[in-house]
């Protein structure tokens, strides 16, 4: 941009010209304004940045990075992540006038990205931005945005993302292009946000280590119902962390465990607690124990299962179903099959979870040849009204019949879903419609339909 006296007048004239250009060429808006939040992107900050450099000799930027902590987009879809970004933009708007000043400008780093940029106004009482004041602002903005989002997002969704802020100040250098100076500021601010994220992740890993060391995992059970007889055939053992805490849900427990290389230790603890709970298993019923793919390769699994089931309890292996959960891809099917063959020789049977989802369900089915197959709840959801889901489940029913596999539909929450599953030929089901997960073991009278 050319030099011009009267920075504010030049800035106003530039924006008026730009407004006219957008009216004449609306496609420009799609290139420079984020379609989700409606916020401008970084290039539109440059007139204000140039003005601040002329007036103050420096600029300060604050970056807020919305981290896809547990793969929100992959789990829930892009629409849900877009909603998170919309809510974050609205949270920034709500704190403008308190933590942020009315003259601060909020933008997005790029179209459809996951980071916000705040171009901060010059300080009121000093000639230059004081570093300590800037760091305190970072902490306040991060805290307030997280607090705002906690009130508007579903608790399960809120627990699956991170929100980290960082900031930087850069000064005018006549030997360097303005664009390079600005991108240096953005890089430094995002790097600081990444540092906060890394510290948060290490703290989270330390809390998980403490949970494992203290054995602070409990077991709930969820009934599996025979839809033809209405009887309970078994229970899935569900691991939970400390009640009411961040690690109560198993997806968070195991996500951090994989990141921290603690999955085998966590798996052993969950398995130990589930086997302890299974000592009270009602006669004639099965217990489904979740097993992570990585834990199948655990060299201690054979001995642990032999010792804890065959030697140290009255449970017969035939009453235990090892349920392979595909949270991560199976990388070594040779070792995987070897362990499963040994466990089958002892009398255990095998289930594959998440049919219709997961990382490699078809290959897993071909390699494992399970006795039980669970239909993922993503297929059960809206199956009473969605013909595509109905056709997919019908195909699984045909496959199960031909391969003599027992088929279980997960995630049944409504009578309409149940009626459709029965009409499609699904034999077994579990879900909140029958019972919430409870401490072992619910009476038959407390399970709907039994």
Give a short synopsis of this structure.
The protein folds into two domains: 7-205, Reverse transcriptase/Diguanylate cyclase domain (Alpha-Beta Plaits); 215-446, Alpha-Beta Barrel (TIM Barrel), CATH 3.20.20.450. The chain is built from 17 helices and twelve strands. The chain has helices at 7-24, 27-32, 46-56, 72-76, 78-94, 131-152, 155-158, 178-214, 250-259, 263-277, 293-296, 301-311, 333-346, 361-368, 377-380, 387-403, 415-424; strands spanning 58-67, 105-108, 115-119, 162-171, 218-226, 232-240, 286-291, 320-324, 349-355, 372-375, 406-409, 428-429.
Descriptive account of the structure:
- The longest helix has 37 residues, at 178-214.
- This protein folds into two domains: 7-205, 2-Layer Sandwich (Alpha-Beta Plaits); 215-446, Alpha-Beta Barrel (TIM Barrel), CATH 3.20.20.450.
- The protein has helices at residues 7-24, 27-32, 46-56, 72-76, 78-94, 131-152, 155-158, 178-214, 250-259, 263-277, 293-296, 301-311, 333-346, 361-368, 377-380, 387-403, 415-424; strands at 58-67, 105-108, 115-119, 162-171, 218-226, 232-240, 286-291, 320-324, 349-355, 372-375, 406-409, 428-429.
- By secondary structure, the chain is α/β, with parallel strands linked by helices.
- The strands form two sheets. The protein has an eight-stranded mixed barrel with strand order 5-6-7-8-9-10-11-12, surrounded by four helices.
- It contains 17 helices and twelve strands.
